[in-house]
Design brief:
Length: 487
């Protein structure tokens, strides 16, 4: 019998009023790791009530004191890092060292944001009038809904929870139904660190039920969403007037110029394309390579890809873990068939691995890919890489930009002029030079443009996401002064 986990509302672990649960599976072996509450609108209503009651006392608590609790969260996350990394690996399928990285990112963001408790800066600026003082102060939005995906099951909740809380908001947190156990573990740590009741409320369940009830709830004033473009568009249409942050998909490219350190570039491509089994929003799913070096690049990349070891991520020798679910295997395979139909040439992969018990798909490389093919345009979110040939830097940048997304890009070159041109002309929220498309650090802003969405997480930008600036005018002239020069 697998354990049944509960929602966390108003400081208590309670069952959903639906009386229904759903299982979470280990994608490496399809075993049920626990059962979770299939929440509905009544549960959301209860959570909103708790968050509403807790809002005044939480937002009145001085920010440095809110931050002390977040620092304690960071300490407890660090203490439990290995246990949590294993849970990430078991529930999401990351290899263990990536699971550790996921938890480390959560630790880092709680530590970083706790420092914001002593900043939360507004602005001061001169008035156009004498004897008048102008400034802005940071205020919480109110109750915020945090909706997270499964691919960074501790890091992304951390990226949202920490800034939401330091700014004085209360929270309804709905994690992906693929990784509810990671969410339960984080909330247990928040509880242990001393988050007062009602400040953080965890609701597990499906997007269409629990998720929709959160995004449409009139008392929830902000939504911070990370997930697919389709869900983001749905939220935008249905949420009503709320402060909404959308972090959605990517179709990220690595450009490799003829002057690049090829071995370094190949390391970056392997990490970008097949790290986390290609299931990162910043995964490199396109390589745009200079025609002169393409044959050499392909030979070397192929040799390295064939050596990747697939398996259960708990084994330290595993390089590539499973996909999250059967639907992801099906989607990845559908794109293999689309690629073949479109006339791309399969260099390796293109099939699922039945001998392994879980949802495994062989790392797949297509070459002779044209920039407008669907495999080079649409987010696959699996271990599929498209190699596209280019003749020069301008063409490479044009191909890089010729997609609807704009999250992360990279260029390998030893020419500083080319590097700076790429920094300026590439249309994405993040650009790497001589490094893969992956590698965000929590003290810098993270976010995309174009179809990837808007709003930024991490860095000082995270504070903007979860607060608003109240504008304050103090007139100490003792007379009626009118702005804009009116007498
Ligand atoms: P998803 O859109 O299927 O689900 C994300 C979350 O939204 C889940 O919690 C889900 O339950 C919820 N949801 C689904 N339908 C909903 C609805 N109608 N109303 C409210 N909530 C709803 O995405 P996913 O499969 O979990 O994640 C993969 C996607 O996330 C990829 O597209 C990836 O690129 C993207 N992603 C983006 C970033 C980023 O920072 N830009 C980071 C990680 C993942």
């Amino acid at each position: 019998m697998s354990e049944i986990y509960k929602n966390y509302i108003n400081g208590e672990w309670i069952s959903s009023s639906s009386k229904r649960t759903f299982p979470s599976l280990n994608p490496a072996n399809k075993k049920v790791i626990g059962k979770f509450q299939q929440s509905n609108s009544k549960d959301v209503e209860r959570a909103v009530k708790a968050a509403e009651q807790a809002l005044t006392s939480w937002s009145d608590l001085p920010a440095p004191h809110r931050a002390e609790i977040l620092l304690e969260v960071a300490r407890l996350l660090r203490k439990n890092k290995e246990k949590l990394a294993k849970i990430v690996t078991i529930e999401m399928g990351k290899v263990l060292k990536e699971g550790r990285g996921d938890v480390q990112e959560a630790i880092d963001i709680f530590e970083y944001i706790s420092g914001e408790g002593r900043r939360l800066f507004g602005h001061t600026t001169p008035s156009e009038l004498r004897n008048k003082f102008c400034c802005t102060i940071r205020m919480p939005i109110g109750i915020v809904g945090l909706i997270t995906p499964w691919n960074f099951p501790t890091a992304i909740p951390g990226w949202k929870l920490a800034p939401a809380l330091v700014c004085g908001n209360t929270v309804i947190f709905k994690p992906s139904s693929d990784t509810p156990l990671c969410a339960v573990e984080i909330v247990k740590i928040l509880e242990k660190a001393g988050i007062p009741k009602g400040v953080v409320n965890l609701i597990t369940g499906k997007g269409e039920g629990a998720g929709s009830s959160i995004i449409t709830h009139p008392k929830i004033r902000g939504i911070s969403f990370t997930g697919s473009k389709a869900t983001g568009e749905f939220i935008l249409k249905n949420a009503g007037i709320k402060k909404i942050g959308l972090e959605m998909g990517g179709k990220n490219a690595i450009i490799i110029m003829d002057d690049a350190d090829l071995n370094l570039a190949i390391e970056g491509v392997l990490w970008g394309a097949f790290g986390t089994t290609g299931q990162r929003c910043t995964a490199a799913s396109r390589v745009i390579v200079d025609r002169e070096i393409k044959p050499d690049f392909e030979d070397k990349l192929l040799a390295r890809t064939e050596r990747l070891r697939l398996g259960n991520g708990l084994k330290e020798s595993t390089d590539v873990g499973p996909l999250i679910a059967q639907r992801a295997v099906q989607k990845t395979h559908m794109y293999t068939q689309i690629g073949l139909k479109e006339g791309a040439k399969l260099l390796t992969g293109g099939y699922s691995i039945k001998e392994l018990k879980g949802f495994f798909y062989k790392p797949t490389i297509f070459t002779e890919v044209k920039p407008n093919m669907r495999i080079a345009q649409e987010e696959i979110f699996g271990p599929t890489l498209s190699i596209i040939k280019s003749n020069n830097l301008n063409e490479a940048i044009k191909i890089c930009n010729g997609i609807e997304y704009g999250l992360s890009s990279s260029i390998y070159t030893s020419n500083v002029n080319r590097a700076f041109k790429a920094i300026e002309k590439i249309e994405s929220g993040i650009v790497y030079i001589n490094s893969s498309t992956i590698g965000a650090e929590v003290h810098l802003p993270f976010g995309g443009i174009k179809g990837t969405g808007y709003g930024h997480e991490a860095g000082p930008a995270a504070i903007e996401e979860f607060s608003y600036e109240k504008t304050v005018y103090v007139d100490y002239s003792g007379k009626l002064q009118k702005a804009q020069g009116i007498d």
